[in-house]
Amino acid sequence: MQALAPHAAPDTMTLSDLPTPCLVLDVDTLDRNVARLRAHLATLGVPLRPHLKTGKSIEVARRVMTTPTGPACVSTLQEARQFAAAGVTDITYAVGITQSKLPEILALRAQGVDLAILLDTVEQAEFVAAASREANVAMPALIEIDSDGHRAGVRPDDAATLVAIGRALAEGAELRGVLTHAGDSYSASGEGELARFAEMERRGVVDAATILRAAGLPCPVVSVGSTPTAHFARDLTSVTEVRAGVFTFQDLVMAGIGVCGIADIALSVLATVIGYQRHKGWILVDAGWMALSRDRGTAKQAVDQGYGLACDSTGMPYADLIVVDANQEHGILAIRPESGATLPDLKIGDRVRILPNHACATAAQHGAYHIVHGRSDDVAAVWPRFGGW
User: Fold this and answer.
1) CA torsion angle 252 224 147 389 (round to 10)
2) Is residue 287 within 8 Å of residue 279, measured between CB atoms?
3) Residues 233 and 271 in one domain
4) What is the number of structural domains in the chain?
5) What is the pLDDT of residues 241-257, one digit of tens each?
6) Is the pTM of this model over 0.90?
7) Over the stretch 158-168, which tens digit does the pLDDT of each residue have?
8) Which residue in 117, 196, 197, 251 could disulfide with 359, CB within 3.0 to 4.6 Å?
9) What is the number of alpha carbons within 13 Å of residue 114 lying toward its C-beta?
10) Does residue 278 share a domain with residue 235?
11) Is the dihedral of CA 323, 327, 328, 330 positive or negative?
12) 223 in a domain, yes or no?
């Protein structure tokens, strides 16, 4: 499969020339976000394995990976295919494996991609080992560890299950190590709580690795990762890598829990004013939930950002102007309830940019990034992104 290629924008293209709604990416902010996390992890002596699911873009991947070949993390086989086609050869597929996906895993490995898979049951380990024996290829697998009760994985103190999985894999496959994702950190708030989640995450995989090694099983990889914990980890002793994804773009959810500021959000949706309901205090734009997504991740946070925070065409936020409701192709802008701010004087045809609640979900609604530098109106390039599974 051929990787999608970026292309330069026409010399005279500006944001005002673009059809709306469309996706805008400030590459300067993206680069600062990447530099920030790399610098933090460097102080802890642990490398970054960036999760590429947020960008789903070859150009974004090249800005966040350490080398053109990786390391990288993905959440779909489509991502594995696209990045492998672009020359990425060190990939972890961090979603629980099923039998139906093993032929493609083997095919990608046969192309020279060191693609590791994830599992958390003896059943999975047994069919991975059986497929490995049949193909005469030892597929590498990591055991997912449930470090915070978020979703999937083996509890780090469940020695019997950990060892049983490890021994089942040894019958033809390869035990690559352990991996966890402290997804509950997304509901945390403040530096102290985020640091606590980071330590819980670290302790979970380190304890699981200790159990496996005590049973005589290999555990070379001890992998942790989420954007909140990656930024607030204070000690990564015995961890071999950190995974994170949304840190590249950041979003309103991350800002709401204290991972970043509003100015650190690199992604926005460009929209056009298409009408008013003045008696209701509404401005209508042509970006509804098809452009913004239905994600309401800030609804339970201290500041509810609706379906997104509205900015002017340069990306400067208006005071308390949010997308209070969204239909398929209509967004309704209004002042946040109980705010003393006033509605901006926007005319039909004016452009606004809307910051996303969840960058992954919003980006998934679009086929390309329109690249800008900071507050510039000039579109420097267009980077394609892909979707699907």
Assistant:
1) 70
2) no
3) no
4) 2
5) 999 999 999 999 999 99
6) yes
7) 999 999 999 99
8) 251
9) 9
10) no
11) negative
12) yes
